[in-house]
Specification:
Largest sheet: 8 strands, parallel
Number of domains: 1
Protein name: Histone deacetylase 11
Order of helices and strands: HEHEHHHHEHEHEHEHEHEH
InterPro entries: HDAC_classIV, HDACs, His_deacetylse_dom, His_deacetylse_dom_sf, Ureohydrolase_dom_sf
Strand order of the largest sheet: 2-1-3-8-7-4-5-6
Strand content: 5-15%
GO molecular function: DNA-binding transcription factor binding; histone deacetylase activity, hydrolytic mechanism
Number of helices: 12
CATH topology: Arginase, Chain A
Catalytic activity: N(6)-acetyl-L-lysyl-[histone] + H2O = L-lysyl-[histone] + acetate
Distance between the termini: 17 Å
Pfam family, one: Hist_deacetyl
Shape: globular
Radius of gyration: 19 Å
CATH class: Alpha Beta
Structural class: alpha/beta
């Protein structure tokens, strides 16, 4: 860790490998091949496509937006990193295969030795969690960042569920609050089809965090206690389609960012809103998802607010292509990529790099 970065840490913060300097040639897009879960075919017992993250990167490389040289390699979150939010009691529970089988909804895991479950299931999720924390810092430095994984919004400090074992959204925000000067308010815009009860429980009493959540009111988790944390709640009916959905997203996204101006937006961009998703129950088209992401990025960039996107849920094989197409659309719109600028003016300091053809050194976190 550089001297510059160490100055960002408040007294008492633990030493972390997740806030190291990122080369100027890299786009603020975080990924590791370790994200993908492959384990004797057991991952196929859950509807989640446990290899979708690698497919997204493959498609972005095919379009020559990403290369091995300009992507940020995610690092695994250490136990000390996780303890910033999680209780030690909860982390110890994950040493029981039964607990992990329940959280991931893959029952056969309970019959496997925990060292295998740790290596093949939890390590990928810890690496994605590290990626979200890294992307939070990058978003402040570069104006935007995308973690190709993450978005485990059903996990709170002491409880996992819904395929979410680590509270990466809470962790990324807590890291920023603790380590980066000038970051004291955050807005979570959660557009996964499911209620984000994990981060809602974590920030229930925290006035620094404004939560907007748009979800199918009839599906998991139906957490009434956690709903008390939502400042802008939009509950959808079964089969909601593009026109109604996009109108509500734009109206409430603009409203949320007008109501409170945060230092960062954390955007949980689940694709389980896609028509035909077995768990989401909504009917949004691929074009609707692409437009949704554009609406959120445009609202943040127009105001000069850094935005971190995580990819969250999505339970059809075609979602990886849609995520890639959405990122490519954000590039075409000038909302991400080298030289992307806020509509109200560039968010990056002069000389700040954001891609392989730029020159300069990343600005320190504000």
């Amino acid at each position: 860790m550089s001297q510059k970065e160490s100055k960002q840490e408040k007294k008492g913060s633990h030493r972390t490998e997740l806030y190291t300097e990122v080369p100027a040639r890299c786009l603020p897009i975080v990924y590791s091949p370790e994200y993908n879960i492959t384990f004797l075919g057991l991952e196929k017992l859950h509807p989640f496509d446990a290899g979708k993250w690698g497919k997204v990167v493959h498609f972005l490389k095919e379009e020559q937006f990403l290369t091995d040289d300009n992507i940020v390699e995610a690092r695994e979150a250490s136990e000390e990193d996780l303890l910033v939010v999680h209780t030690r009691r909860y982390l110890n529970k994950l040493k029981w295969s039964l607990v992990v089988a329940t959280i991931t909804e893959i029952p056969p895991l309970l019959f496997l030795p925990n060292f295998l479950v740790q290596r093949k299931v939890l390590r990928p999720l810890r690496t994605q969690t590290g990626g979200t924390i890294m992307a939070g810092k990058l978003a402040i430095e570069r104006g935007w960042a995308i973690n190709v994984g993450g978005g485990f919004h059903h996990c709170s400090s002491d409880k996992g569920g819904g395929f979410c074992a680590y509270a990466d959204i809470t962790l990324s925000i807590k890291f920023l609050f603790e380590r980066v000067e000038g970051v004291s308010k955050a807005t979570i815009i959660d557009l996964d089809a499911h209620q984000g009860n994990g981060h809602e429980r974590d920030f229930l009493e925290d006035r620094r965090v404004y939560i907007m959540d748009v979800y199918n009111r009839y599906i998991y988790p139906g957490d009434g206690y956690a709903k008390r944390a939502i400042k802008r709640k939009v509950e959808l009916d079964w089969g909601t389609e593009d026109q109604e959905y996009l109108q509500k997203v734009e109206l409430h996204c603009e409203g949320a960012l007008n109501e409170v101006r945060p230092d960062i937006v954390v955007y949980n961009a689940g694709t389980d809103i896609l028509d035909g998703d077995p768990l989401g129950g909504l009917a949004i088209s691929p074009q609707g998802i692409i437009k949704r992401d554009e609406i959120v990025f445009r609202a943040a960039r127009r105001r000069g607010i850094p935005i971190l996107m995580v990819t969250s849920g999505g339970y059809q094989r075609k979602t990886a292509r849609i995520i890639a197409d959405s990122i490519l659309n954000l590039q075409r719109q000038g909302l991400v990529g080298c030289g992307a600028a806020d509509e109200a003016g560039p968010s990056l300091a002069p000389g700040t790099a954001c891609g392989p053809v730029c020159a300069g050194v990343p600005t320190p976190a504000r």
